Amino acid sequence: MSQLGLVLSGGGARGAYQAGVLAALSHIASKLKLPDPFKIYTGVSAGAINVGLLVAHPGNFVESSKQLTGLWSQIDSDQVFYADLMALSRGGLQWMTEISLGGFRKDQALRSLLSTHPLHSFLSEKCQFQEIEKKIKQGRLRSVGISALDYDSISTVTFFQGAPDIEPWERGMHRSERAVLGVEHIMASSAIPLLFPPIKIGERYFGDGCIRNQSPCGPAIYMGADHLIAIGVRRRQDTSFTYHHRESGEIPTVSKVANVLMNAVMMDGLESDIQRIEQINQSYSLLTPQERKRVALREVKSLWISPSVDFSEIAAKKSGELPRMIRYLLRGPGSLEESSEMLSYLLFTPTYCKQLIEIGFADGMKERPQIEQILAEYEENHHVKHHAHAARNNVRSLR
After folding, report:
1. Are 381 and 42 in contact (CB under 8 A)?
2. To 10 degrees, what angle do helices 350-366 and 368-398 make?
3. Rounded CA separation 367/74 (Å)
4. Which of 27, 53, 209, 251 has its CA 20 to 30 A from that of 106?
5. DSSP E strands, 75-192
């Protein structure tokens, strides 16, 4: 049976943009009378948070996306991390102690600069994780996948909860594990290195799913999706390298270096992944029906929606909304302007997130013809295969 998948990449507060695009998708799906168009959900980092809030909700996609938009519109940094003087001073002093002792006291080692206890409480309150299994048993949902980095093996692990017939997979440095999804999986996937603490699942520690995630669409395809809508959080021109020569001569500040590192760590792999899918589709179209039966390939229709603006520029103008201690720390190694990339991930404030939601909704509505086409095509294939399956069952019962 045809399956439509939703793929959400990550990026801290940039996840508000996805909420805006999802609001547009919800609006379009509602007009087409498709309250639950997606059967497969996958996400990393902030995308994992959004996936959790969508699927761990008793309502359908249209209802859960409306709640998601409301939550992002009101979110504040104190719902995500602690940034008061005491917490940051304790973190800074502990780091200095570790450095001076050469990591001697590993049992008390500092895991991160910021504490994400508020985010854990927020997700525990807003997500009803038992709804995932209910939806799977009702046939409203096929599978959910949350990806995180395993710090021991330095590989990407997709924790998935889904239909019994879905087989675990392993491709290079990317593997899957069946699990009953909960807060810890989302917390692990969104644990930005050094800023947020690693999360323990079983006997292993995990971090942000964006790291080493070269194939964000892979999990949805492995779980059976043959139609995809993927939502990124970076402009298309930000995901490819462009050389700009600037006469400077000044040594890069710590802020500038940190900005570059953050850019690299949180690199969105959606563009290259979508290009690979298109190349495979093109090769598949050249095969004869007999040849198609002999290859382990299938056509996957996809739509990639990405921001039309640079979020780091918006964040730089709203830096005054950050908690005072975060601004102080970022100013120390350089200027706030040089830390604009990091700001765009940490700026969990209503005004910034509302602006990103508005941009996301507008970008989503610009793609309305393509969205309607992929939803209509998916629904047509879904019904055709469903009726064919029902007809085969009727024939068997007559026999």
Report:
1. no
2. 70
3. 26
4. 209
5. 143-150, 155-162, 170-171, 174-178
Could you give the CA distance from residue 158 to residue 47 in angstroms, rounded to a whole number? 13
CA dihedral defined by 380, 381, 386, 387, rounded to 10 degrees? 60
Contact in structure between 269 and 214 (CB atoms under 8 Å): yes
Whether residue 100 has pLDDT greater than 60: no
Closest residue by Cα to residue 277 from 213, 215, 363, 212: 215
Whether 167 shows a pLDDT value over 50: the answer reads: yes
Name the residue type at position 216: P
Structure tokens at 180: 């009953």
44-59: average pLDDT: 97
pLDDT tens-place string over residues 307-355: 999 998 999 899 888 877 677 666 655 555 667 888 888 899 999 999 9
Pairing of strands 155-162, 174-178: parallel
| DSSP code per residue over 224-266 | T-SEEEEE-SS-GGGSS---------PPPPHHHHHHHHHHHHT
Angle at 164 between CA 162 and CA 170, to 5 degrees: 70
d(CA 86, CA 89): 5
Beta strands in 67-198 (DSSP E): 143-150, 155-162, 170-171, 174-178
Rounded Cα distance, 45 and 8, in Å = 9
- Cβ-contact 168, 177 below 8 angstroms: yes
Measuring CA to CA, which residue among 81, 27, 15, 24 is closest to residue 53? Answer: 15
Q: What number of CA atoms fall less than 13 Å from residue 112's CA on the CB side?
A: 19
- As beta bridge partners, residue 267 has none
Question: Mean pLDDT, the chain, as a whole number?
Answer: 83
Do 343 and 312 meet the contact criterion of CB atoms below 8 Å apart? Answer: yes
Quote the DSSP letter at residue 115: B
Specify whether the CB–CB gap between 154 and 78 falls below 8 A.
no
Q: Which whole number is the average pLDDT over 242-265?
A: 58
> Dihedral, CA atoms, 178, 184, 189, 191, nearest 10 degrees?
-160
